[in-house]
Amino acid sequence: MTTMTRQGRPVGELLRDWRRTRGMSQLDLSIEAGVSARHLSFVETGRSRPSPELILRLAEQLDMPLAERNTMLLAAGYAPAYPSRELNDPELAPVRAAVRQILDGHGPYPAVLVDQHWHLVEANPAVALFTAGAEPHLLTPPINVLRLSLHPDGMAPRILNLPEWRAHLLKRLHQQAVTTNDPALYELHEELRGYPSGDDVAVPISDDAASRVVIPLRYRHGDQELSFFSTTTLFGTPLDVTVSGLAVEAFFPADPATTATLQALAKPAAGTG
């Protein structure tokens, strides 16, 4: 009898869906995982129950998120292999300390910690530059930083190159949704696609050095134009579901004027206390 998940999905069906998502044939996957194509076929059709070791080996070759690997194990009747702790769990104290060090050390430039669905987990004080002027409904937890960025009540009216920044974020989100096969990310992508694109606003194209290398975020602050590029930091070889979904998004000044402005904005805060 085939073991089912609570949603009624057998392990073989889940495996087949992930294999197809990755664009692999049964033969491709069997070779990569070191298992016979016949046995893999039996697993997918429910004629054979895979061992937990085989499930994890197949999941590794399919580059499945840790949470989905647990789902596969549960579907086959096994215990999850990866814990999913809350971020305030004592065992994750070193992770929290590392994140805090990254965020604080990045000042006076903005940096945020987000989860796998782009919800804001932590931020440094410089992020107030981006949240200033946003409507309260976008700043009520859980705050989704992509929604905050592209919503017309959020940062969007102050993003001078909104069409290209919007296209960049949507492409990145779609790639993440495809990679993780996460319905929540597909839903977020569809929501964000419905926001105004800003294509009707003509803004001169910047010719600074950063614009010729990466897509910058050109942001209006008062009567000034600030320019940023961003980097993403992930945890290497995570073994916890929560940690595997965390990312630090750090923004760097793309020109000397932005550097000077952010350093000047930070001086009053540095002198208080």
Automatic annotation (TrEMBL):
Q: Which residues cross the membrane?
A: none
Q: Check the record and name the Pfam families matching this protein.
A: HTH_31 (PF13560), MLTR_LBD (PF17765)
Q: Which residues form the HTH cro/C1-type domain?
A: 15-69
Q: Which GO terms describe its molecular function?
A: DNA binding
Among InterPro entries, the record links this protein to: Cro/C1-type_HTH (IPR001387), Lambda_DNA-bd_dom_sf (IPR010982), MLTR_LBD (IPR041413)
Q: Which Gene3D superfamilies does the entry link to?
A: 3.30.450.180, lambda repressor-like DNA-binding domains (1.10.260.40)
Protein name as annotated: Transcriptional regulator with XRE-family HTH domain
Organism field: Micromonospora parathelypteridis
